[in-house]
Amino acid sequence: MLMGAVIRLRIRQRIAAIAVAALFIGTFFVPPASAAPPPIVPGRLAYPAGGTTAVGVGINAANQNAQLAERIPAQIKPGWKAQPPRCPSAATSEASSISVAGARTVVVDRQYQCTWLSAYNTSTGALLWRHKFHFGQMARTEGSRVYFSHDDPNGGTLLDAYDIATGKLLWSSGHWYGFDKMSVGSGVLVNDHFVIDANTGALKFKLPVSQNHGNTMVAGGKIFSNQSDFVEAFSPTTGQRLWSYKKPARTAGSGNSTPALHNGRLYLSSQYGVGTLVLDPATGKYIRTLPRSEMDIAFDGPIGIFTRRDHNEPDVISAVRLDTGEVYWSRKLGMLDVHPFRMYSSGPVIENGLVWILAAPHDGVGGHLIALDEVTGAVRSTTIQTCAAPLGHIAIAQRRIFTSSNCGVLTYVSRELLPDPGFELGTGGWKAYSTGSLTPVTSPKHEGAKALRVTATSSSPGKTGLAHHSVITNSRQGKPYSASCWVYSTGTNLNLTIRLLEQPQDYSTRIQLASKTITSLPAKSWTKISITGTAARSGERVIPQIYSTNQTTLTGHIVYDNCSVTGG
């Protein structure tokens, strides 16, 4: 029995290794330079415009799949994970819905013959409360409440509202249909054509939809309903139909995908291999047709991330200009044997200039959490989950990535140790070394809104730069530590040194772990300098220093941005 377990483990390890290789055999292409649209500029909006909550199934209320206020880098590491107890005969626990609301994260886990609704501490994963049901699939959060639909033991479907802090049941309503379609906003909950008062659970009215079984979204002060043949808008106050658009047969927007509202346009992706329909949300007027996307689109300003799926082929992820349909780049995922890599039921999610996707060839292989560069489509990182990902939901909020798996919810956090790598909030804990004046600036900058300028305070050469004494205060012997910065010199022939020092807590001695020097920085362009060293002892400080020895008040200054410290 033990030998069989070892063989299975080795087979799984081999499959995982092959999967990584297979994933990147896919095709990558960009349009010819002459046809290229203006460059992509990743959005980085401050909260709340950029969002740091996820209302359920990894999306925000307007279904934009964007978290532009987050700053998680491509390099991540596992955080906490959680799953409820296994019900009798249950082999897996599938996290089918993830909602993040500040300090609380609400997860729905589906198992054989039972479903769990659990609330966890967002930072630690500690269980706050939990309820058990026979069957349910999706929960959404809004303010201080959690809304969850499940089957009624007496027949039919119930919609419950719970206090997100305590898990206390606030009300339960029988006016509901199905388990996987729910939208909340403007004081109402909508499912198909039922509109429920979010405060009381009372039925307000039924929408006079042209067809039942559509997907709805409450956003922009309207209820939008995408049906097989119609798209319609209704008042959330009265239920009055505001406009109706009839889709031509088998054309853009075919099917009943969940609508998305972005920058004054309503997007309806197709489920049948045809284009994406774009309408005016105020009038229902046809605007344009864009390329098809079988998964929900992720939006960032003038671009969208689309997903194309063909029979027995890997998924293709593309960055598309929303006003013209021009393609910036496309990446086709690879194969594992005869199995194509595909995303599951979550569309891409954009944050921090990255496009996050969760893909796998089948449910016997761990999900691949992949970060693509939003500007170029290049693969920035791949993290293989320890469990399979049959549903594949991604939620990004509160400086953490949440994904579903067959063993509950998994989370990931940045490997970054600096509190403010891009100097968006100030100096980020850096101090002048050993002279210099530090000033946050908006130009030049490498990324984001700000950078940090270091100006010499003397006309005589000396060490002018930065040092960080609090980023690593408890070293681990034998572990590697890395530091890097992007730098911009306004003068010519300025040198730059980066080094890692290890010192005890009283700074009585020091060991230089590594050092690197650029003898002459290119003027007026961004250059990255980086270094890695290995800690000699445990329990000490590892101090990154970056400085010039020939910068003076007469030679110009150096601007620093997107610094990084990782390791341990």
The CATH level-2 architecture of the largest domain is identified as 7 Propeller
Q: What's the average pLDDT?
A: 89
Into which percentage range does the β-strand content fall? over 45%
Spatial sequence of strands, sheet with the most strands: 1-26-25-24-23
At CATH level 3, the topology of the largest domain is Methylamine Dehydrogenase, Chain H
Question: Share of helix among residues?
Answer: under 10%
The count of domains is: 2
Structural class by helix and strand composition: mainly beta
Radius of gyration equals 26 Å
Q: What is the straight-line distance between the termini? A: 37 Å
The CATH first-level class of the largest domain comes to Mainly Beta
Secondary structure layout plus pairing:
Blueprint lengths: L1 H22 L4 E2 L46 E7 L11 E8 L2 E8 L2 E8 L5 E7 L2 E7 L2 E7 L5 E7 L5 E5 L9 E3 L2 E4 L2 E4 L5 E4 L8 E5 L2 E5 L3 E5 L6 E6 L13 E3 L2 E4 L7 E4 L6 E5 L7 E3 L2 E6 L7 E6 L5 E6 L2 E2 L2 E2 L1 E2 L5 E3 L2 E7 L5 E8 L5 E10 L5 E4 L2 E6 L2 E7 L16 E4 L2 E5 L9 E5 L8 E4 L12 E10 L6 E8 L7 E8 L7 E9 L6 E8 L9 E10 L1
